[in-house]
């Protein structure tokens, strides 16, 4: 099991809990979309999975281990502002490796196995079509290219779990759908477990073979919708896709 | 700005000065050519170099000292809302005080020597850097910090890879903006309780020896000191903060 939440409870101080006795499991290699309106706690859930927040009750296991801090094999990609504005595309892509080199393989900040600094980001820059932009700064490239850089930086660390928080919401439609397919392709290629947070029904139906629907907090029960066609080439033109979108819309309106 | 344009402007000012000196035709406004000659002579034969070095050392020491103390303090205040709430009213009160009026007090307490001069310039630079670095650190988007943390960065790596490079432009901007004031205040500070430094040199030649060309040479040296520092900081900014100058 990649992700295991056992009666997880989490709340911010002086606010009702966002999650209460919440149970959810995600297996290795699955692609999940977390869908819900703003304020439902989907980003909070992602931050919990990333180890950037700690549950106030219950258990949260990633790859069988309780989280106390960000885990070296989890990659996180946020909507915006993830790149260092003063570093070039190449330097940004190298950041994760440099952080690992900074600490050495201590098992806390960097995995104990595997060499840290020996990897090169160049193959990833090439794979993501960024090699020509390697010396540009984030302010000089497009939003889509910035997210590609963030993806290169994350994949260079050879993660097994990829967490994304609305990564494509500020992109234009064509770039978005390009990056959606690319992400699914890379996840299949690298055997990644994907959890992507989105507020867009269509994106959830495109990306998530399983969809976790969150509603007004407190969330107490995991509402899961199967969407087995996601990731297959013609999924967006299939009846199943239309039906899933329709189903999701009705559920969200009902909530 | 083009280098050629700056040179042309310098030339134009020199021509203006020459014309003014011809027009005024009194010893208190010598021609720039005379002043340059005296400047070179005083620098290599006289003791202008020694005074220049004394002033330069005072500004440089205070710049280093203020960066060393204000940058970390600014980073801490920018990151901790609680500490900033405690200290920001104090900074708010102290920041706008014209530090030059404190010269007599600092001299009373610290006496003669380099220390009081360094402390006075330090007080000017310290607050400039503190405020700019603090605002820069407070303005870092939390998403940036979170994504770097998710790459495995703890406190030390965050400092090395985020806070340090983020505060660099603030430090250099603060220095660039305040180095002129610093040299001006140095002049005032060097009028008292010292026999070394360009301030003393200018005053002594102008008021005691009535050697006006030498006085002007001192003024020129002090201007070059300010200009040199300004250009150095500007150059460092362009080199170290390339990302701020890209299109």
Explain how this protein is built:
The complex is a heterodimer of chains A (255) and B (247). Helix content of chain A is 33%, strand content 20%. Chain A is of the alpha/beta class and 255 residues long. In chain A, helix 2 runs parallel beside helix 4 and helix 6 packs across helix 7. The longest helix of chain A has 18 residues. Chain B has a domain of 141 residues: MetI-like (MetI-like fold, Orthogonal Bundle), CATH 1.10.3720. With 247 residues, chain B is mostly helical. Chain B starts with a helix and ends in a 7-residue tail after the last helix. Chains A and B meet through strand 6, helix 2 and helix 4 of A and helix 7 and helix 8 of B.
Briefly say what this structure is.
The complex is a heterodimer of chains A (255) and B (247). Chain A is an alpha/beta fold and 255 residues long.
CATH homologous superfamily (4th level) name of the domain at 54-194 in chain B: MetI-like
Major pleated sheet of chain B: none
Under CATH at level 1, the class of the largest domain in chain A stands as Alpha Beta
> What's the story with the biggest beta sheet of chain A?
6 strands, mixed
**How many domains comprise the coordinates of chain A?**
2
Helix content of chain B: over 70%
Number of helices of chain B: 10
Order of helices and strands of chain A: EEEHEEEHHHEHEHEEH
CATH architecture of the domain at 54-194 in chain B: Orthogonal Bundle
Find the CATH topology of the domain at 54-194 in chain B.
Answer: MetI-like fold
Unreliable residue runs of chain A? none
- Give the terminus-to-terminus CA distance of chain B: 16 Å
Main attributes of the structure:
heterodimer, A: alpha/beta, 7 helices, 10 strands, B: 247 residues, mainly alpha, MetI-like fold
Itemize the secondary structure elements and their pairings.
The complex is a heterodimer of chains A (255) and B (247).
Chain A: E1 3-10, E2 19-26, E3 31-35, H1 42-50, E4 57-62, E5 65-66, E6 74-77, H2 89-103, H3 122-127, H4 143-155, E7 161-165, H5 173-190, E8 193-198, H6 201-207, E9 210-213, E10 223-226, H7 239-254
Helix pairs in contact in A: 2-4, 6-7
Chain B: H1 3-24, H2 32-44, H3 48-79, H4 81-94, H5 103-110, H6 114-138, H7 142-150, H8 155-189, H9 198-208, H10 212-240
Helix pairs in contact in B: 2-10, 3-4, 3-6, 3-8, 3-9, 3-10, 5-6, 6-8, 8-10, 9-10
